[in-house]
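User: I'm writing a short methods note and want a consistent example. For Peptidase S54 rhomboid domain-containing protein, I'll paste the sequence; you return only the structure tokens, no commentary, since I'll be parsing the reply automatically.
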Amino acid sequence: MGANSTDLPVNESYSFSVYKSITNVRNFFRNSRETFKRRSKTTEGKTILTLLGMNSCIFLAWRISKKRPNASIFMVQHFTCSRDSMQIGRLHTLFTSNLSHYDPLHFTINMVVLYNVGNELIQIINPTRFTQLYVFGGISSSVTSVMLKRVRRSPRVSLGASGSVMAMLFMFAQLFPERKATIVGKPISVQDMCLASVVVDIMGIIMGFSGIDFAAHLGGAAFGYSYFRLISSSLAHERREKREQSRSDGKDNGSEGSLLRLLKRT
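Assistant:
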């Protein structure tokens, strides 16, 4: 019944695997620290880190306010968006709610997408446009959410960067339609993932599911799609100039040509 000695890992092998794991973890944090320092010196990196910092500060404020009734009331009044907040003139919540997360999982998912997708996207559309995408994508999501709440006379409040994140994803999907993402262990193109999310959000609205603001997702997605259409000509012109400059410097990049062809078709 017991295993013989040949069934068990020898000490040297076991020690090596532990050492390797520790080394990998240490290298990960070291590389992350170096990447963080490098990116924090660029305008693009500072923009992403500023948004991450703002979201993080407000998330911490929610954590701190849990045991402070007055603070909780303040957070609800100024960092959530609802039909009632519009009626009493708190228009700033159309944006501030998009920096606000109460649930740790919700916060983590949105920040991971913001960091990973945002760092690539901002290199292409520039920091100014990226900030506009985040801000107005979020406002568009809040407006769409409030409109549906008015129709349904719902008193529910909304918060979270999901609208801004959806705007980023839909912009990204149009720039890189064949880029793959892994969902439940299976690869799927970002474009197909975005289309599937639209179907899910529409079904969520029709079925009246609660807990997720499906209308906000659609509002952010609509802005991301529309904003890409608005700036695609300017992007194509800028990428063309950049590619010509790279050619003159002897540093032509094939990916620039692929992206330029995509922008020309839009």
